[in-house]
Amino acid sequence: MRFLPFRLKVLGAFLTLLTAVLVSSLVLVDRSQTRQTKTEIRRQLEVARNVFTSLLRRRDLELNRSLSLLAKDHAFKQALATENMDTIVSTLQSLKSRVMADAIWITDDEGEVKESTLEEPFEARLSDLPIVESALDEHPASAVLRLAGVPYQLTAVPVLAPDVIGVLIAGFKINDAVALEIKTITRSEVSFENDGKIFASTLSDEAHKKALESDLASISDTDPTVIRIGTRRNLVLRAPVAQGVAAYLERSWDEAIEPLEKLRRLVFFVGLVGFLLTALVGLFVAGSVTAPVAELVAATKKLSEGDLDTAVDIRQNDELGQLGKAFNDMAGGLREKERFRSVLNKAVSKEIAEELLKKGMIELGGEERRVTVLFSDIRSFTTLSENLSPQELITQLNAYFKRMGAAIQRERGVIDKYIGDAIMALWGAPVSAPDDAVRAQRAALAMFAELDRLNDTRRDASLPPLKIGVGLNAGTAVAGNLGSESRASYTVIGDAVNLASRVEGLTKHYGAGIIVTASVREESSGADFLYRSLDLVRVKGKKKPIEVFELLGENAPPPDWLGDYEAAVAAYRAGDFTGARTGFGALADRNRNDPAVALYLERLQGLPGKADASWNPAHTMTEK
Amino acid sequence: MRNILLLSAVSAALAASSGLAPRPATIEATVLDQRGSPVEGAVVFAISGAVESPPAKTVEMTMKGMEFDPAFSSVSVGDSVSFPNQDSTHHHVYSFSKTKKFDSRLYKDGAPKVVEFDKPGLVTVGCKIHDWMKGTILVTPSALRAVTGKDGKAELRMQAGPSVKLGVYHPRLRGKPEKHDQEITLKDGKGAAAWKLPLKKESSGGKRPHKVYY
């Protein structure tokens, strides 16, 4: 997927939401307002229609009243009955001017015109008009009818004497004056249609009339219809008046909708401002997130490239601030870890390593420490390895190292290094404990226990048993990071270390499993280890002899021969060679396989019965 | 006396034109309306033919409750109609009919207006004060007239030549009654006349609703 900055995503989401809210509210407001406006116009147009109808009724009523008065006049009846036409004509003319009628005429008792004030010749036979028929039937009647194509509002009343002796008819033209009167009351435009032509209207604009005329067919009696006059829109309602005659009531849609247009513009403007504000605020908010994130990304990159001195500067009191702090802490931790990596690699366990780091107990620069150093070695490993394939060699060695390493780590020893088949382990660095020497010896004993178990499995696999020697020495050594900058390693160096290595070398000579120096024995006074004295020995490269002991076990009852053995060793050191020879001889008789006894007996051969004054019991090792 | 003379003169003229002496005749008249239902109360009368006329008489058409009672009456030429006023208000009886035009003064008590009808035809009587009051008087040439029963039938007996002219009227008749005059040929002194008359609907009352055609 294409990378899309978080900032744009946040902004996009904000703006999409805002736009949706704005658009939907605009649409809703628009719809409801439009509907309301339409309803309002419809109501107004309906009022106009009612006004129009009631106007016709009122005029009809007036006309009817005047005509009825005349029809009831006895003199008029008499004049009609006696066909006194002069009287009738003058009476009709007087009535016409009084009620301001546009037409007035009278018929005989069969509806035939007797006298008329109408000037135009009429297409329709006036006697056939339905209102005349009705009046001949003694029912006064009104209708809008076309005379010579001109719509008239007509009223007919019978002249009763008491039979119908004639019908009196009068009417008004439906014209601009009528339209204007309705407009004055209702403020709606009014037009009258006669067979598809507008013949009277309050509209002064010819184009408007044309537009209305062309839309006449589509205009409804019930629902106001929109017509377009150029760019303007009007709503029109039709009020049918008579066959082929209808009134059209019209109101401007644009004027009515203008407040809505204003509202629309306002909402749009507010929406635009809101949009911009949101964009700004969104950018700011998103920025407050993305800027530190970008900083963190850059810092993480640097960190992954190995620049552990990276730190971020995020001073925000929120999750990002916390993240920044966490990052800095992490980088700090990594720096710390990197510094102590060499130590940690050797740390007995994670817990200890963390403890060390926490306490800042390790001085990497180098310091003198009291340490107990353990060396172990597989005897005749070279011979053993000669018969093995490289894979087998590695497998067997690793099986061996695994068990030994475990034994050492159980006693909190630090495996300093593997040198071929040899192991160097440390107690007292990087961290000291009062029982370092004790633990080192326990580890050595455990190594032998592990070796026994390893050999059991080797025997099962038809492999020859392994034999090892372990040497321990306690003393002062220098601990610290050694090596080039890129490959520094925390270790200890010094005489104490060399001596431990030498002591391990003695195991073969003395045929002993574990040899410890006197310093080790001294430092484990609290524990119940079982030793036997081996020798006073001057190792190679050292002038001063040291006393070495063989570690036999812990918390074990001393064997019955140990007293005799120690006595024999003491006799030897005192120069009582005879006594020593007797002692070792007796021990050899009891256990022919004791290599230390055999060594002493061999040493005593050729020695006199008693030593002279120059006797020095220290043995000088010439081999390594 | 005048009536007898008149009728005699008419009979004589007819007899002279046909060359036949009048003989007794019976005419069966049937009056139906435009839908073919029998019409009751139609007056069938002879325009020609002779009968021994009774002496002239005076019939009453009372004004009571601002109506004429009866609203329709038929008389013979030479008869008179009297219009007694039984209401507590004044009435003014008039007629513009060509048959007989007359005009009373305004009166309430005292001697009622009496009008003698000297021409046959229809007379519509009104009251100047009360527009809706309407009385109709049918003046027949002779007393030779009969009123149809429920079955729409009436019988006329007279002295007549080979044919006789008959007229018909009903208070609800639409149009001029002369249009329905018939010449009936007699055979063995018998004749039959039948009419289908256009009648107005029976009015429900005095109200005349204003009809509006828009």
Plain-language structure description:
Chain A has helices at residues 6-72, 74-81, 85-99, 130-136, 176-186, 206-215, 253-304, 319-346, 350-359, 381-386, 390-410, 436-460, 495-510, 518-522, 562-574, 577-590, 595-604, and strands spanning 103-107, 113-116, 141-147, 150-160, 164-173, 189-194, 197-201, 225-229, 232-242, 245-252, 367-378, 414-419, 422-427, 468-482, 489-493, 514-517, 529-538, 546-554, 619-620. Chain A is of the alpha+beta class. Chain A folds into 3 domains: 1-107 and 170-307, no CATH class; 347-556, Alpha-Beta Plaits, CATH 3.30.70.1230; 558-624, no CATH class. In chain A, strands 11, 12, 13, 14, 15, 16, 17, 18 and 19 form a 9-stranded mixed β-sheet that branches. In chain A, strands 2-1-5-4-3 form a 5-stranded antiparallel β-sheet, with helices on both faces. A 5-stranded antiparallel β-sheet of chain A has the order 7-6-10-9-8. In chain A, strand 8 (225-229) and strand 9 (232-242) form a beta hairpin. Chain B has 2 domains: 2-52 and 142-197, Immunoglobulin-like (Sandwich); 58-139, Cupredoxins -  blue copper proteins (Immunoglobulin-like). Chain B is built from 1 helix and 18 strands. Chains A and B meet through helix 1, helix 2, helix 4, strand 3 and strand 4 of A and strand 11 and strand 18 of B.
SSE blueprint:
The complex is a heterodimer of chains A (624) and B (214).
Chain A: H1 6-72, H2 74-81, H3 85-99, E1 103-107, E2 113-116, H4 130-136, E3 141-147, E4 150-160, E5 164-173, H5 176-186, E6 189-194, E7 197-201, H6 206-215, E8 225-229, E9 232-242, E10 245-252, H7 253-304, H8 319-346, H9 350-359, E11 367-378, H10 381-386, H11 390-410, E12 414-419, E13 422-427, H12 436-460, E14 468-482, E15 489-493, H13 495-510, E16 514-517, H14 518-522, E17 529-538, E18 546-554, H15 562-574, H16 577-590, H17 595-604, E19 619-620
Parallel strand pairs in A: 14-16, 17-19
Antiparallel strand pairs in A: 1-2, 1-5, 3-4, 4-5, 6-7, 6-10, 8-9, 9-10, 11-13, 11-14, 12-13, 14-15, 16-18, 17-18
Chain B: H1 2-18, E1 23-33, E2 43-46, E3 58-60, E4 62-64, E5 67-69, E6 72-76, E7 80-83, E8 93-95, E9 102-103, E10 113-116, E11 121-127, E12 134-140, E13 145-147, E14 153-160, E15 163-169, E16 182-185, E17 190-197, E18 211-213
Parallel strand pairs in B: 1-17, 3-7, 6-12
Antiparallel strand pairs in B: 1-14, 2-13, 2-15, 4-5, 7-10, 8-9, 8-11, 11-12, 15-16
